[in-house]
Amino acid sequence: MLLLAPMEGLLDATLRDVLTRLGGVDRCTSEFIRVTNTVLPERAFIRVVPELLNGGRTAAGVPVRPQLLGSDPQLLAENAARLATLGPPGIDLNFGCPAKTVNNSRGGAVLLDEPELVGRIVAAVRRAVPAHIPVSAKMRLGYHDDDRAEDNALAITDAGADELVIHARTKAQGYKPPAHWERIAHVAQALPAQRPVLIANGEIWTTEDAERCRAVTGCDHLMIGRGQITDPGLAQQIQGGEPVAWSRIVPLLPVFWARVSARVEPRHRAGRLKQWLNYLRHRHAQAQQAFDELRLQHDPRLISAWIEQAQVRWGCPDPVKAETAQAW
Question: Which residue from 9, 35, 59, 81 has the least number of CB within 10 angstroms?
């Protein structure tokens, strides 16, 4: 099983749609839905996970599991119960976000200093959600250090989670390499035989990385994030497929732009496209050319025209107009 990671401010419904169209991804996890002091209305879940209006799947049919973030077990349970009425293909819990603003509000990775609370959150959500809906959790190795990694994994296991993703770094380590895959193996050894499905995450950029991660962690299942954004063919290659050429990415640019145009204010749209191109240029020379041409461009109308011209330039056999590309 190969999962697409949640990445706040980057890997949202727009990129989920585009990246899953290229194959290889078995399931996605959404960016977090913050739970603070109330039971959210249905529209709050749909705003982050619009795939809930499409049977909980992307346009390519890949399931998307919504992720909740918070620190109050009862409130998270009540929100999970409401979310369950929308028919998601599972509910995930965030114990890994390293953002300072989130941690200062007692959300994400900071909770890893309180394994008992982590366990109570998972247990409360598991009780509140119908048995046929899986409950999973994503954690880092710890907050300041990894001393309580095993305690947190055991708490999540004992609370009845179906799956556990472990990002092989602490909050303090952020996203700096390396990822400490060997610690995932240590955590796995501390868990009972009847444990959640374990999924390894962190610093998987190539098929060789995927192979080494599996060998070191003992996990057959992986979650990838920035590697897939940089190389949209990575998941397919890990699954045994061929590399994805630039000619297959070009037809997706108008789809991406249409989704951005539908969800983002005009003044921020160019930034979203440049953000993705900034990743793509590390794998594709044509993306570097595109980034250079658009670097100083902010007018959405001119960007739409550029996308149409780019498809012709790079050999798209049936160019799609950016303003008419369908999201689903």
Answer: 9
pLDDT band (50, 70, 90) for residue 4? very high
CA distance 37 to 39: 7
pTM, rounded to two decimals: 0.94
In contact, 129 and 80? CB cutoff 8 Å: yes
Given CATH 1.10.10, say whether it is the number of domain 246-324: no
State the DSSP H helix or E strand holding residue 120, giving kind and residue range, or none if neither.
helix 115-128
The residues near 302 (Cβ < 8 Å, ≥ 6 apart) are: none
Catalytic residue, from 28, 97, 213, 316: name it.
Answer: 97
97 is a catalytic site residue: yes
Where in the chain are all domains bearing CATH 3.20.20.70? 2-238
Cα 141 to the center of its chain, rounded Å = 18
pLDDT of residue 188 exceeding 80: yes
**Alpha carbon distance 206, 229 (integer Å):** 12
Beta-strand relationship, 27-34 and 163-167: unpaired
Q: Report the C-alpha gap between 108 and 93 in whole angstroms.
A: 9
Report the greatest alpha carbon distance in the chain: 58
Model pLDDT for residues 223-234, shown as the tens digit of each residue: 999 999 999 999
